[in-house]
Amino acid sequence: MFRVQSKGRGMLIAAPLLAILPLVLVVLIGEPPSKTQAQSTAAAKLPVAPVRPVTDEYFGVKVADPYRYMENLQDAEVAAWFKAESVYTQNSLEAIPGRAALQARIKTLSDAAPAAVFDLRRLPGGVYFYQKRLATEEVGKLYTRTGLTGEEKLLVDPAKYTGAGGAHSTISYYAVSMDGKWIAVGMALSGSEDATIHIVDAQTAKESGETIDRAQFGGPSWLPDGKSFTYNRLQKLGGSVGPNDKELLSRVYLHVVGTDPEKDRLIFGDGMPGMKFEPTDLPFVGIVPDSPYAIGVALHGVAIEQTLYVAPVTALGNAAIPWKKICDEEDDVSSFDFKGDDIYLLSHKNASRFKVLHTKLSNPDLAHAEVVVPEGPALIKGLAAAADAVYVQEMEGGLGRLVRVTYGGGTAQPIGQRVALPAEGVVTIAATDQRVPGALLTIDSWIKAQTIYAYDPGTGQTTDTKLRPMGPFDSPGDLESVEVKAKSYDGTMVPLSIVYKKGTKLDGMNPTILDGYGAYGITEDAFFDPVFLAWYERGGVLAFAHVRGGGEYGEEWHLAGKKLTKPNTWKDAIACAQYLIDQKYTSPAKLAIRGGSAGGVLVGRTITERPDLFAAAFDQVPMSDVVREEFTPNGPPNITEFGTVKEPEGFKGLYEMSPYHHIKDGTAYPAVMVTTGWNDPRVASWEAGKMAARLQAATSSGKPVLLRVDYDAGHGIGSTKTQRDELIGDILSFALWQFGAAGFQPANTGASTGATAGAGAE
Question: What pTM does this model have?
Fold first, then answer.
């Protein structure tokens, strides 16, 4: 199974926002104030950010920016304001009476399952590698075992890599050599995603000695010799290469274990003779067992369409590598896997819900490629090659299925090749190996925790691996979910998933959080986390809006919420909110909206267009000043999704979708919690800061606008279990406070609770 071992460059990973709190959106107040600090600031007023307008003009349109100076996060005044906001926010949250009890309940629920197991690999001989985090641990550790019931062996403990001041470290990615003897592991501090590759002996758990920095995207892939691997490395900063150039002109190198990485040879990417790469291209080279070929992959910013090349693996050590193009952007190939001389590609060219193509690597001809799985009513989400077949994952109506396409059998018959599954839910291929028959897969649902299964083509059975032990709260019998559709402003029917306790009365009184994202063609898939039982136990409802810009109905659905069509994203969210109100699940006084990263556009524009629909909003690591987004390190790769201010149409779309620029003075906005991680490589902290400052100054509702800052976190990837649990607790506590729930109302509404009228006014 070929996989790019990086976390991607988009504003968010492909997973539901609430589901990926452990990995993507966990941002927490980092440095808690001392008792003396807390006492001295308990009655402090909300910090007020000075207004220092800067006006830009784009194509005749003047755009005011009252907080441009915040973009210099190194400025002492700016840093002090963020610190003061962090202290104020912590004090406000601590003043919520029911918060401590809710946090305690969440911890009980979180600690109940013995362990979380994820990020699996399989090798011949029944060898497994995976990350596992025990209930008593903060982050995952890397283990191996032979046989599903074999003895477990610890290989990598991130605690060994703790940074200065106790900063925690996490495994960003790892790749195992084909013989299972070596592991290339990317380790990153404080959620920064700024990984350094360490090379670990899988037999002794000792390191080779050398490390490779600037490996944020990494993507290590081992050669058959078991002694060398390819990897992506960012360029060095300094001189004419500034911080905003960090993600540009990255390259792929070949490293031999035990040698100096600074002498590694360029094999793919910018600088290769006779090849053209754009600065924002992100290159990788992939090698798999049982194939004499290497695949060069050029990702074009955050676009899903890839350019692929092929070359003999044996040629990677040559001075000249004969890379041959397989496909380009216009072929609309979004993923692939290969075995031997055969490559299977997922493409949306003339197939919005995707199709699977097959061609030969020895003579690639995509124009005449065989269609092995044609487009159908189901969305084809991914594929992976095993020894016996290519496995294809599909989804329709929120339910997944697995299709098995045998090699050399001509056009597949998908219906006849469907794998029988033991449960309903979203199916994800977790691991395959070109030398091992079958696949490891996971099944998720809204009302039961994930299970890891193994499919054996010899028996046709799909069985529980027992790798992930179930906890006492992992399969509650009192929850139910429904799939409905809300009618948007233009008549489009928008899918909406709603989860709640059985017997919930539709009387408009249920505390409800509506979650949304809508970018990059990402689907919001079903998930279950027992910590949210703390919400359901209090009569809470969780709803998930599958808005345009996402990928639930394929590429057409994505394109309907991109650039100039982006308004559909937040208008669909508004329609879903109205549906929840009209159907009496909730009411505006008990409804909150939540999203993060690129979902910050959804949240921000929803509350600026319809502030009356919500009592609260959670705007996490948000894209807020979208007009200025491309002037950040992760901005240029995202131009393909959102546009550029350097073009008239691009500016028009960006300005319309920018929440920061649509905040109006004297408007009664809902209560808002904005979050950021100081080490965020995807969305700079100043975007959250600007958004919070502008809302604080503009709102007339008297409801709090809080800014949470975590100085030991980034975009949320790599945050700890405690961070996740406490963030969830604070989200739910804040919501219940704003909904007027009994037991969550502070004894007074002084400034320390953030509830004073005219928050942000001097």
Answer: 0.93
